[in-house]
Amino acid sequence: MSQQPAESTSESTGFSESSELDPAVHAKLARYEPEVRGAFLRFRKTGSVADVQIVVLAMVREHLPKPSGAPITDGQRLVEDLGYDSLAVAEVIFAFEDLFGLRIETSEIMTLDTVGSLKAFIARKLENNNLAKS
Question: 55: closest CA among 87, 13, 86, 23?
Fold first, then answer.
């Protein structure tokens, strides 16, 4: 019987996840598909907005109050269309803060009403965060 290697390289991402992610981040992303983990890794390496949007969309789906297999579009409203309430919005925002190391103010959250506005907001927040660290 052969042993599994400690590191696995995802064919879809080309990254060795265990060597590219610190254990805490790896644990946070473990429940997501390899495509999402790969997008997070690419974002960390390149700052790609497209990759951030893949991760944001996956996290929105993960925190849906009433999960369904239906596609999620940028125009869908978080509350009216997807069934988010204030607690679900807070949970997904906390998840973004935790994963990306962001600080998001309550007043900022109140401006987010659609999936598209949330994706754009997180991308801007990350860009501003990276500029501040430079």
Answer: 13
What predicted TM-score, i.e. pTM, was given to this entire model? 0.81
Tokens of 46: 């390149």
Question: Per-residue confidence at 20, pLDDT binned at 50, 70, 90?
Answer: low
Burial class (CB in 10 A: 0-12, 13-18, 19+), 34: middle
CA–CA separation, 131 and 107 (whole Å): 22
Of the CATH numbers 1.10.260.40, 3.30.360.10, 1.10.1200.10, 1.25.10.10, which one belongs to the domain with range 17-133?
1.10.1200.10
**pLDDT tens per residue across span 40-98:** 999 999 999 999 999 999 999 999 998 888 999 999 999 999 999 999 999 999 999 99
SS3 86: helix
